[in-house]
Predict the structure.
Amino acid sequence: MNRKLILSILIITVIVLPLIGEEMNSQITSELTSKLEAIETVKVGMDTLWVMIAAFLVFFMNLGFAMVESGLCRAKNTVNILAKNFIVFAIASISFWIIGFGLMFGDGNLFAGLKGLFFVKGADNSPAVADAYSGVYSALNWTGVPLFAKFFFQLVFAGTAATIVSGAVAERIKFHAFIIFAAVLVGIMYPITGHWIWGGGWLARLGFFDFAGSTVVHSVGGWAALAGVILLGARSGKYSTDGTPKPIMGHNMSMVTLGGLVLWFGWFGFNPGSTMSVGDGSVIAHVAVTTNTAAAASIISATVSSWIFQKKPDLSMIINGALAGLVAITAPCAFVSVGSAAIIGLIAGFFAVIAVFTWDKLKIDDPVGALSVHLVNGIFGTLAIGLFAEDGITGTATGNGLFFGGGLKLLGIQALGTGAVAVFTFAGAFILWLILKIIIGIRVSKDEELKGLDLGEHGGEAYSGFQILN
Amino acid sequence: MNRKLILSILIITVIVLPLIGEEMNSQITSELTSKLEAIETVKVGMDTLWVMIAAFLVFFMNLGFAMVESGLCRAKNTVNILAKNFIVFAIASISFWIIGFGLMFGDGNLFAGLKGLFFVKGADNSPAVADAYSGVYSALNWTGVPLFAKFFFQLVFAGTAATIVSGAVAERIKFHAFIIFAAVLVGIMYPITGHWIWGGGWLARLGFFDFAGSTVVHSVGGWAALAGVILLGARSGKYSTDGTPKPIMGHNMSMVTLGGLVLWFGWFGFNPGSTMSVGDGSVIAHVAVTTNTAAAASIISATVSSWIFQKKPDLSMIINGALAGLVAITAPCAFVSVGSAAIIGLIAGFFAVIAVFTWDKLKIDDPVGALSVHLVNGIFGTLAIGLFAEDGITGTATGNGLFFGGGLKLLGIQALGTGAVAVFTFAGAFILWLILKIIIGIRVSKDEELKGLDLGEHGGEAYSGFQILN
Amino acid sequence: MNRKLILSILIITVIVLPLIGEEMNSQITSELTSKLEAIETVKVGMDTLWVMIAAFLVFFMNLGFAMVESGLCRAKNTVNILAKNFIVFAIASISFWIIGFGLMFGDGNLFAGLKGLFFVKGADNSPAVADAYSGVYSALNWTGVPLFAKFFFQLVFAGTAATIVSGAVAERIKFHAFIIFAAVLVGIMYPITGHWIWGGGWLARLGFFDFAGSTVVHSVGGWAALAGVILLGARSGKYSTDGTPKPIMGHNMSMVTLGGLVLWFGWFGFNPGSTMSVGDGSVIAHVAVTTNTAAAASIISATVSSWIFQKKPDLSMIINGALAGLVAITAPCAFVSVGSAAIIGLIAGFFAVIAVFTWDKLKIDDPVGALSVHLVNGIFGTLAIGLFAEDGITGTATGNGLFFGGGLKLLGIQALGTGAVAVFTFAGAFILWLILKIIIGIRVSKDEELKGLDLGEHGGEAYSGFQILN
């Protein structure tokens, strides 16, 4: 080959081809980029769809709580309990919108959010994630959905915490005292401990885990309820002068069962929904199965426990058993195996039954078993991560729990977090209830309690036309 | 360089390279096209999934209506109301399939669909959209889902309109008269006004907006109900001879509360589902938050209003307050801010309470408050677009409402549409009820009304074995 | 042109260009591959989302069954029925996890799964599909979702079969006998016939079709119930000495209606969910519409039948009519047109009504109509494929049914499968009930039956405080 030939090849190869290649590449790259954006939009859309649907399911749990709580109380207090449960989500919606969301997820210090506090109005470029995120709600920048999807999902969780309180204080609380308490709980107290754990606060930094809220939601609701129950005192006639508890039967077990199944259904939004993204769906499927298995196992152990301790399997124990298992698996659902979930459930069902008797011995009068379900098993579920966690089982690096060779470290942090939230929430709630007690009173009159809160607080009855005995 | 070299470069560059480039491009383009199709299929699948799930939620509202309506009436009429609510969706399903969908969405003139009228059998190449669409249901060519998904979503909406009527005429309507009315309402009347607004008819052309149906569904149901209520007259004993209304209490407030929460839950299909596509999910999230916020605000204002006017917060007012807010936000949910939604809700709750007293003064006897909820707030919600709309807030060019500097234009069009639908539906329903009254009678006998429609119309009672007082 | 020029062009074209092209191609191919993977992940995620949401809806049917069954029985047995329905899903969850899923879907022979039997622990590389699948649950390798999604979806179906039994044996069965029966049914019997049809067994190989389980779930539940009903005998007082049936009215038709609507709602998970993938959503939409249309048509024919035979439209007949249509369309929902679905529904509603009278003539006492709904229409629905199938109507090659020119072949196979499942399940269930009867007894004492199973089995009553007559 001669020089000219080589030169011509060189020129074409070095100058002409790259120019053409670049042109082609840029064409193709722009096409690829637009495809990539199309995929990204579909992905964001799908994640948002999931977050919203899960939120709808959690919203629906309001029905479950309303039916379980009213069904387990007496007919004469039904309207009051239903009204409390209905309005509490309205209060929560407004309260969490005005201030709660900002306090919980706004950028701030280790103890509370300080930016974007009011009306979810902070800067935010969601659905951008991670480093691409620029805004004041950084603690939620790991999920690529619009800000209102994040807000709505967190709102329905916040509403749950307040609803838990409702059951424990039933049949003697003043309607407006409860409303005020709920507004402050959802607007201020819940968001603060929530910030510690889900808002990038000090417990999050320490390595405390709570996947869907055994502590953030359930034990917080439980502690707030316990403070109220102590300050309210037991219902008239619940304990005889020698302290023997007198059973006060629920007036409608059909409603209680309905409520229990609605809650179980809603929990498939609560736990699997806490992924807040879909990915290939495998974490959602894992969490749904651990959640359901814990509930099933807990029902079985609660039924057996009730059969042993009460001679016959009591339906309210069976239903509370289901809820106990669901509460207990809420924190660890994404961090443990299905087998561990079954064991957690078995323990939770047993705890739920013995807790009912224990509270009664302490003369802590909880008409619906909310403390046994949400407080006891909220604590247990949070600690269960320290026992049963398997590092990375669905991708999260939790480290191993005690039973899987991880030693006491994780368990210690879980215990610390549980204790810190307990102290803050119980103390805060106690003070708040006390202030309410002093200023407006929290307990209805003895006469109103006897006649029923429906007539006293609402001027109506739940079952007009039915012959009611007591 | 010599001529030959230049020539060789030219030949390669101009002839050979483009051929090769074309080949490469066509390979890559075909690969990109197949990717694009894969993305497109996933997108269509996701949109369809959303439309179907939203439709399931709206279907579920049938339960809400059944429970609210039967619970607010007396035990002796429960079976009748439940049967009406159960069968009405069956009637709607068949009626809308046979003719309603075609009349509403078939290509036609400004007043009704004329093509593809029967059995959803018209030509249609969905999920193709916009210019790619060729078929006779052009009014729905903006959403890229299969025809049956469009049909099913619209069907569950149509069913809602008929169910609204059911409550207002309860406790005195003849079972078969109601069935015939519902069949005509869903098959003919609802689709005609629906065509005007959602089917590309004259109101759509004018720039009338109704995102999820405050007018298309709720006020249409309300007007049809009002005509029936006027022709039926009040229930025996509802008004004393001097016109004083006597309260007739609902027999089961647990069911009413359940129904209210189920409706609220279902509304998350009704409003956000009316996007009929997912996109990046931001419109869905926005609409869910405006919807929920309006409901919450409306509960609070209804509770306060009831507390003021009735001295105590009445549970049925609280629940109807929630529904009022939901109806009112249905039209504007995608066109207003969350703050505006809160204000709309506050107004709706107040309207719901005072409307109940107003109907009673007019001796319009509506046992369940359907007129206060669906008619009054259906109208208000439609007009609220003219007041609170913010142009393009979620992408739709509505123009601004009065309060956002848009002047009276939008409000005027909204008022015109509301009025036109009112005249058509009220007149049509009045004539239809009148014909039924003349031919088969619409009201049960006084004796049957006294003993209850359950025994008279169905030969059974709802609560066999319970001691019932009246 | 001279030789050199030609040579230089050749060299560049043949040697240099391909090299560069290859480099470019490989760059682009790798980018395309990553896009493809991104699309694939989104697709898998979307399919999983659908399977899980559908499963949640099917889970929710537990509430529907609990309310329909308890509502149609007497108040004194309500707690017992609710407890049975609540615990049966817990039992199913554990039993199907331990062994059922493996028996049904594990690779094995024509009659049962043999690999991956216990605790869903078999090898599995889901969501890989078809040839890419390597694992022991090959029968489910057509759906690209994670193993736990498959398991959970199948679990909620298995739970349904056991729940069907619950209603038919109500008001006289011993609590623990039922629990043991349910555990074996879900763990062993249901999975074996399920393997024949959905697990790659002999009926699948023969070309037997059952899209969502008219036979796999409903008639299996029905046959198991029938065996129990025969061995249990009728409720005390149900038939007079001359054989005349005495109607025993349900105690709460509000609950029955609620249950019916919840079941209908849940069926939108049951049938459309059985696609187990989304694709472009068109099969889901088709199945939802056939399902809903059959239910609607069945309600209408059941109402008319009841009106004719019983003089007045009975609410329980209307509701069971809906369920009958839903059961009947379950097998053929994806294989027939909407018009055929309407005809299937019309027939199903008629069958449901006359079946109720027929069982009573045979002194087969089924308190809730479970046999008329699930057994009769499970059989009818399965055979309906042989009559109404249209080959490939939603993509599946079923061949045509008799009415669409397919002759008797498909009908014959459907009949054979129906019969084989009937013989196996009825015989198996009969033996199991018989063993239980001999060892622990299956029927409560006459005294307990009279006083109610609530006090006898559970030591509590459902409506404490209400005046109850019987």
